[in-house]
Each structure stands twice: as C-alpha cells, then as structure tokens.
Amino acid sequence: MKRIAVFTSGGDSPGMNACVRAVVRTAIFKDLEVYGIYRGYEGMIEGDIKKMHSYSVSNIIQRGGTILKSARSEGFRTPEGRKKAYENLKQFGIEGIVAIGGDGTFTGAKIFFEEFGIPTVGCPGTIDNDLYGTDYTIGFDTAVNTALEAIDKIRDTAAAHDRIFFVEVMGRDSGFIAVECGIGGGAEFVMVPETKTDIDLIVKSLKNLRKTKSSSIIVVAEGGDEGNAEVVMQKVKDKIKDKNKEFKVTTLGHIQRGGSPTARDRVLASRCGMSAVEGLLLGHQFHMAGVVNQEVCFTPFADCIGKTKPIHPDHLKLIDILSI
Ligand code: F6P
Q: 231 and 91 in one domain?
C-alpha cells in the first residue's frame, strides 16, 4: 500500500482534527502518500480530494470541527453515487481509506468495501459514544464537559428561583451523554432512551423532593420514549398541578458538538488515528480502531454498528441514590 486517503463524515465531533493529524503524520512517517477527502462521502463522489502534507495538519490538534469538513451524504446511499466515488478513488490511486465518523459512516464504509473492496479502517468520531468496539468515542468527553458546564450554570439560576429545569442533551438514540453529565451535574433525574420512563414516578419523587429541595435538574436525552424535554416538562407539569411551581426547559443543542477537545479526546483521537494507519498496513479491511480497557483493538464494522454498547447499570443506580 502506497497511497491512502482520510475523511471525516456525519456529525462532526471535537477531536476529529486531532485524529486527521494523527492519520496524516503516521502515514507520512510510514512512507505513504496521504490524501484528504473533503465533506466526507460527498467529496468522494465529487472528487474533492487533495494531497496532504505534514504541515497541512499543523496547529489543528486543539481545534473543534474538522478541517476536512463533514456532511451527511444522500448520494452515497445510491449505487450510482458509490460507483462514482470508487472511480474517483481509482483515478487518484487510493489503495486504502481511513474513515472518521459514527454509525452512518461505518454503514457506508461496510457497503462500499463489500462492493469495491478498497480496505477501510474507521476511527470512532461521534459525540454520542454509541459505537460497540470502543469504550469511548472521539468527542464524547468534550461534549459531556460542555453539557456539564451548562448544567452547572443552569443549577445556579434554578436554585436562585426555586425552579424545576428540564435540560435536553444530544445523543441520538443513546443516553451516554445524559448519564455522564447527569451524574457530574448532580441531576435529580436522567431520562435515557435505553430505559422506559415512568412519568408518574418522576412526579411522585419531585413531590417528595420538595420537602428537602426547592429546585431540581432533570436531564432528558433527546431520543427518549416520552418525547423531547418540552413535551416531558408539560407532562410532568400537568400532573404536579402546583401553580406556584415554575418549570423551565433548556435545549443545549449543537454547542455540545463544538469547542476545543479535552485532553482525553485528543489522546484518544491520536491513538485511533495512528492505529488506523497501522491497521491498514497490517491488512485490516473493514474494521474500526477503538480503545477497550486501555488497549487498541480492531472490530468489524458490522459489530460496531450492529451490537449494542450498554450503559453501565451502576451509573443509573448512582443517579437514583445520590439525588435523594
Ligand atoms: O450524531 C451526533 C449528533 O449530534 C446527535 O447527537 C444528534 O442527534 C445529531 O447528530 C444531530 O444531527 P444534525 O447536526 O445533522 O442536526
């Protein structure tokens, strides 16, 4: 293998730049030529591909977003789009790919490998932490800390006004962000898609809590079964029936995706990026480079997207016990 390409795809995550840097520098260290594909699969289809050098990735390790830009490509979902992408890669002489992204990225990579056989190794780049085959994904730690900082501020004003706040966090269909910032932020409740929500139980507990606490924080993961934070707040408010109690909703949204990556994310991104290039040279063809129990491991894309990584039950227990 003499020439590889790297791209970022799907929702961006803090640390993607650190990962691109690691891929480019490791490739050059190993005497490979390395190309950057812009806007993920979209750029692959359009041939937006440029040679990268060591200096192309200078001064980016600390930056959020991705210098290669990102996109969710509709075109790549079609056989015609993928064929066009393959033809472009052939034209550039690309023999291996590093794909940085989440489950959508790896679903595309798996199909593309099955159709055209270009070896691809993935790096787990998503704030959601919803990939099997790695304890943490690149960007998750930064997103949790961003959400936590916001929750700390909300707590100040919630306490000052004796209000109940429902704070919605991202995570798509998983509750990892909600659970970690819920524990760290001392939330009274955390609602996650992985478990069924009992609104009556929340109402009962909030009524009990009123004897000891005048304000509460409820973290709502965006993919929960009872709806978004606004809907949940309305349901709880209707059942509490207390005209003197004030309820507020804050949706944190895309601030969770931005910002300078934490040290933990930079280290994880650097490790995964370096390992992805080494993995290609070792012969991995449809695997993600993740870190499990401190060790780098390669997991087939099918497992990364098909198997579920559960939330540790102790984390949910912690919230119940510590919120009394
Ligand atoms: O997958 C990352 C993520 O931020 C999810 O947490 C969220 O549901 C989704 O992307 C939002 O996507 P978009 O930026 O396309 O609205």
A: no
Instruction: Give the separation between CA 127 and CA 253, rounded to whole angstroms.
Output: 12
Structural domain boundaries, residue 222:
142-257
Residues 188-231 pLDDT 10s: 999 999 999 999 999 999 988 878 888 999 999 999 999 999 99
Residues contacting residue 195 through CB under 8 Å, at least 6 positions apart: 175, 316
Closest residue to atom 12 of ligand 1, CA basis: 11
Q: How far apart are CA 150 and CA 165, in angstroms?
A: 12
pTM given for the model: 0.97
pLDDT at 210: 78
Answer whether residue 41 is part of any domain: yes
Q: How far is the CA of 11 from the centre of ligand 1 (A)?
A: 6
- Pairwise CA distance, residues 298 & 279, whole Å: 8
pLDDT of residue 209: 82
Whole-number Å distance, alpha carbon 253 to ligand 1 midpoint, is 9
Distance CA 257, CA 249 (A): 20
Pocket test for ligand 1, best of 12, 39, 127 (most atoms within 8 A of CB): 127
- Domains contained in the chain, number: 2
Give the Å distance between the CA of 172 and the centre of ligand 1: 6
